[in-house]
Each structure stands twice: as C-alpha cells, then as structure tokens.
Amino acid sequence: MSPTVDDLRNEIREALGRYERIESTAFTKEALGALCDAVGYDIETNPFPPKSEMRAGVLRTIGALEDVDPTQADRPFRKAELEAIAAALEEQ
Questions:
Q1: What pLDDT, in 10s, does the model give residues 43-56?
Q2: Per-residue burial over 12-29, b = 16 or more CB atoms within 10 Å of its CB, e = otherwise
Q3: Are 62 and 88 in contact (CB under 8 A)?
Q4: What confidence score (pLDDT) does residue 40 get?
Q5: Exposed/middle/buried for residue 75 (C-beta within 10 Å: 0-12, 13-18, 19+)
Q6: What whole-number distance in Å separates Cα of residue 28 and Cα of residue 30?
Q7: What 8-state DSSP symbol labels residue 4?
Q8: Buried/exposed 35-67: b ≥16 CB within 10 Å, e otherwise
Q9: Are the C-beta atoms of 35 and 8 separated by less than 8 Å?
Q10: Where are the domains of the chain?
C-alpha cells in the first residue's frame, strides 16, 4: 500500500527534525522554511516569503519545476511532489 499524503508530509517533517502531526495539515511557513534549507534553496527568514514562493523554490531545487514561479505552486504540494521531496531528502 502506498503512503498517503499525510504519511508523506509526516515523513518529510521528521526528516527535517520537526514533529509528526496527527491531523491533516499543509506545511506551516516555518516548516517550509526548514524544507527550503534542507534542499538548499536560500530564502530570507525574517519575514518568510509567501508559501507559494517557498514551494516553487523547493520544487525547482529538486527538479520538479523549471523556474521558481510561485503561480505554479499556489496550492499545497501534491502527492507526486511530496514523493519527489521525500526521495530528495533521503538522498541527502
């Protein structure tokens, strides 16, 4: 059985040293900031950029997007994107 979106989010959170969440939630700005750091996408952290910009940066860094275009990441990560992120974190 393949992991659910919630399972993948929690796997990524744990890989970042963050805590597992029982309820189904998208990543917070702080978690996205940690994810950007983990994949090597530089951001300003005070204040954090918009979530869509951080998601686009993560996807660009792992090769899932050609450009950092926030309009292509204006929604939570999809399952295939979460799988790619989890795989990229495992490689590091």
A1: 988 899 999 999 99
A2: bbebbebeeeeeeeebee
A3: yes
A4: 95
A5: exposed
A6: 5
A7: P
A8: bbebbebeeeeeebbebbbbbbbbbbbbebbee
A9: no
A10: 5-91
